[in-house]
């Protein structure tokens, strides 16, 4: 049988790395399994300004994550890069199963994160973190006195658009319908905001620019007319924020006894406990009101301390 770790962590974003760090410092045997690069969504963020105690001027997502990874290595956290295709969550030993074999733990921390539903336009991937964003709280400061466009029409899109008006010179909501889907109370506030404008019956076809977002082509869904939007010459750029929903990375857990909400997120209590003893969830993958690096890291720390408590009670 494979080695049985005290803690197995699935995912190496801020939540998973924080969990690994706390487990390593507690002298627990710990394995982090990640299918790709460390960092999750934060790895595509060019600059970070809202992480408490930040010590590097112009901190980027990748640089912050690199230091988190180094901390884990310092405290003996084992790592493996692999794609998990099945799980066993019930019982005393939790198993992650891949084509290479099994990874077993007395406890499991699910830190697989969530990802923003893409806008779906040409050039989107290339300009992520270079003008295209999915988090107003993270990136609003970078667009102070610039023009910003928000894609979406639901509660989240309109609320985030109103938040952006505190920073941007002008905010335009681009919505594929001729009316918003947001709650009426939210709409009333939005329509009263003088910095908020609306582009109805419209979708984004393409974004572009010379290294930074400065051009966008939009399409009227009723007439088919294409319009090219170019950044103000003095600004040289603008921002496009996509708020058409996020998707949790939980498909592998469907039908495995783990409780998921109607959107696929994992409900937990304040101690990151799921409905299955010994299985914890941390970070963006769980049901929560704020998805930020700082809250993910806190979740990871809490989850690991609860893993230690769970193991002590079982022995």
TrEMBL record:
Its cofactor is FAD. Keywords: Disulfide bond, FAD, Flavoprotein, NADP, Oxidoreductase, Redox-active center. It holds the Pfam family Pyr_redox_2. GO terms for cellular component: cytoplasm. PROSITE patterns: PYRIDINE_REDOX_2. One of its GO terms (molecular function) is thioredoxin-disulfide reductase (NADPH) activity. Homodimer. Binds 1 FAD per subunit. Its EC number is 1.8.1.9. GO terms for biological process: removal of superoxide radicals. It comes from the Bacteria. Residues 5-300 form the FAD/NAD(P)-binding domain. It is an enzyme of class 1 (oxidoreductase). Belongs to the class-II pyridine nucleotide-disulfide oxidoreductase family. This is Thioredoxin reductase. The keyword Lyase does not apply. It catalyses: [thioredoxin]-dithiol + NADP(+) = [thioredoxin]-disulfide + NADPH + H(+). InterPro entries: FAD/NAD-bd_sf (IPR036188), FAD/NAD-binding_dom (IPR023753), Ferredoxin-NADP_redctase_2 (IPR050097), Pyr_nucl-diS_OxRdtase_2_AS (IPR008255), Thioredox_Rdtase (IPR005982).
